[in-house]
Amino acid sequence: xxxxxxxxxxxxxxxxxYRVLRQQLYADTxxxxxxxxxxxxxxxxxxxxxLVDLGVDYFGVAYALEGAELRAAGISxxxxxxxxxxxxxxxxxxxxxxxxLYSVSLxxxxxxxxxxxxxTDYPVHxxxxxxxxxxxxxxxxxxEVVSAILGTNSLRICSVFSHLGASDDPNAEEFxxxxxxxxxxxxxxxxxxxxxKNPLFxxxxxxxxxxxxxxxxxxxxxxxVRCGIGLYxxxxxxxxxRLLRPVAQLKAPILQIHxxxxxxxxxxxxxxxxxxxxxxxxxxxxxxxxxxxxFGKENGCVWIHDQPAPIxxxxxxxxLMVDVTNIPCEAGDTAVIFDQxxxxxxxxEGAGTISYELLxxxxxxxxxSIVP
Length: 372
Fold this sequence. Notes:
By secondary structure, this protein is an alpha/beta fold. It has two domains: 11-233, Alanine racemase (TIM Barrel, Alpha-Beta Barrel); 248-371, Lyase, Ornithine Decarboxylase, Chain A, domain 1 (Beta Barrel). It has twelve helices and 19 strands. The strands form three sheets. A nine-stranded mixed β-sheet has the order 11-14-17-16-15-18-10-1-19. The chain has an eight-stranded parallel β-sheet with strand order 8-7-6-5-4-3-2-9. The chain is elongated.
């Protein structure tokens, strides 16, 4: 039994998932572990340290604060900063983070910043927009990119990368293969222009694949892959989910049981009105914990004594109520929101969302417990 809402983080499952993904790669392909958003809602320090022990080559975070947190936890492995902002340049430098330069404007700002500090040969990564249309340089900007790089000695180009937009969707294979072709063309044109100007230019690494890219397009693994959700147990496909183990298990105690008569309501705004005598269990989790209102009105279901208990009415800020009419239970018993048998993806699908959103939205007020 649990005494408070707890997210159990199974590092053995993390190790299993890493090995499953690693087995899909060539021996010399580097592995970048994505640990942004508090390692997808888990626990960045312990997760990152376990991944260091397993042998990952790089970490990836979204913002400078996340990289700073890893450094504070004692992580010395190289960190690719995926979405840097000019406001955080000092922090990037202080914590030895490697920024993704996704626009000519950002590149020029970063060069100016480094030159003002008399810093040379700083490791950076160039991001190309191959079709996701989120961040990244466009093909038409290659000449300008090359000119900016050759005009300074402050940069060392470690890699050229892009990001797949639909590698988990079998109906989007044509789109994904077009992205791969666009990326290849950008890389080849960029390196050719660089060598024409500087014959000593060393070809940077290449990386494109996310978890679904690794599983569905292994021929595009190049020098490195970037895996996030797969490390935490989800492969975006039932056949791959069976190979992986969910790392996180969310459990909470029943605080109180109510006997509700027909015609009585449950929760705010009469979100549920009983049509017959109903037994309600109240759990100390709500939308402030990341279990949003969309999971109410039977869109979400928890498990008590291995039996499903639908969420009734509107989810409150700190509490949700579930139907336990046919489940013998009492205050203090444990409710499972998701675990290795009933995964986060299953819980999320009930409300039409995905495991990423559910996991990364879990509040820090939920206690994390590391299972070594």
